[in-house]
Specification:
The structure is a homodimer of 225-residue chains. Chain A is of the alpha/beta class and 225 residues long. Chain A is 35% helix and 11% strand. The first copy, chain A, has one domain: Rossmann fold. Chain A has a five-stranded parallel beta sheet with strand order 3-2-1-4-5, with helices on both faces. The first copy, chain A, is globular. The termini of chain A are far apart.
């Protein structure tokens, strides 16, 4: 029987690369996406399109409305997505988002008896979110090992963050080697309904620069440029 | 301005006592309940009834269907709630439930700038769930301090588990001192729509024995006895 992995799967560049890595390592993959009140819900459409063309055992989209709490430019209509670089933790930070997503992943992992949860967090070319750093991931693992039946029995699920110390350029090069079609992925924080990107938000800027630095033609469709 | 606390609030004996403790300590209280696919959804009705008579700033009920994953007698129709004592971690254990609930609480806490999250976990007279033990709570706190903007700025939310080392008898005595009306609370894993209890599930048995040992008349309405 193959090893099982849950992939936190947004349909963006990082999580799609993560999926390809897990599959290349022989895992049976179970994709987990969230409809959490994000303004850029077309990322979920991207996730569905990618899943269709990948050998995924199951894709679950969990409804969990974090927009009800507000507090982030990604979920709160009263806060605009910034279109220029900002200092410190940006307004696109969604309070405790990775913790919530990993926790729900942990619940599913325990029922599936999954060996791993893959998360495409990245602490190099990233937006400065606290819940993307290695020390956070380590602390989540320690907590998860104490939280679950499988954890205290010594066969708990392992968090896998293969992108955490890669640059965006390295991620793209690795993905292309593994056959990822980045034209299908949506990273933009304010993508339109067709999945076209703005080209000016933080996420677009980081992605654009990475394609440029990797000397790879940017396959992203933009609506603003 | 008063301190703010989020109370993980099921409408059961423990969380209702927790709410009374937080209020006695001068916190403005925000109750957080979950519709997670539990069979005993009448606990949510109990939660709403109790909230009506308590001075609560806001009550949010989050929809997050963990029954989709299955794996627990509390959410999975294919698994009966046990009516006699069992060995080890019982089938009523819901995978990663406290982790998911605390994580969503953490998200709300960060937006509210809350000082504390109160959780009525209890490691003495309890069902043997791994996510009720002090070492688990400590690990969650460590993780939360690394996960959030407020945490890394040094003013993160503090988990408060005032019941963790109390016996059920001590909890009831404390609650009565604080004026808790336990007749309104629902602890039963298979309570009927009127909020009446079975009297035979694990949760009922622990609760019943506690009222008996505390020499307090059991105010619970039962449908099986």
């Amino acid at each position: 029987m193959n090893k099982k992995a849950i992939i936190l799967f947004s349909g963006g560049l990082d999580s799609t690369t993560c999926l390809a890595i897990a599959q290349s390592q022989g895992y049976d993959c179970y994709a987990l996406s969230f409809s959490y009140g994000q303004k850029h819900s077309s990322e979920l459409e991207a996730a569905k399109r990618i899943v269709k063309h990948s050998k995924i055992k199951l894709h679950k989209i969990i409804n969990l409305d974090l927009s009800d709490f507000g507090g982030s430019a990604l979920t709160d209509d009263a806060i605009d997505v910034p279109e220029t670089e900002t200092e410190g933790i940006p307004s696109t930070y969604v309070p405790a988002r990775n913790t919530v997503f990993l926790s729900v992943g942990l619940a599913w992992a325990e029922v599936l008896k999954a060996d791993a949860i893959f998360a495409g967090v990245n602490a190099v070319d990233y937006s400065g979110y606290p819940d993307c750093r290695p020390e956070y991931i380590d602390a989540f693992q320690t907590m998860a090992d104490l939280a679950t039946k499988s954890g205290i029995e010594g066969h708990g699920v392992k968090l896998q963050t293969p992108l955490i110390s890669l640059t965006k350029v390295e991620i793209i090069k690795l993905g292309i080697e593994l056959g990822v079609d980045y034209s299908k992925t949506v990273s933009c924080y304010q993508a339109n309904l067709q999945g076209q990107a703005c080209g000016v938000c933080d996420s677009c800027r980081i992605r654009q620069k990475a394609f440029e630095d990797a000397s790879v033609d940017d396959p992203t469709a933009y609506y603003k440029q």
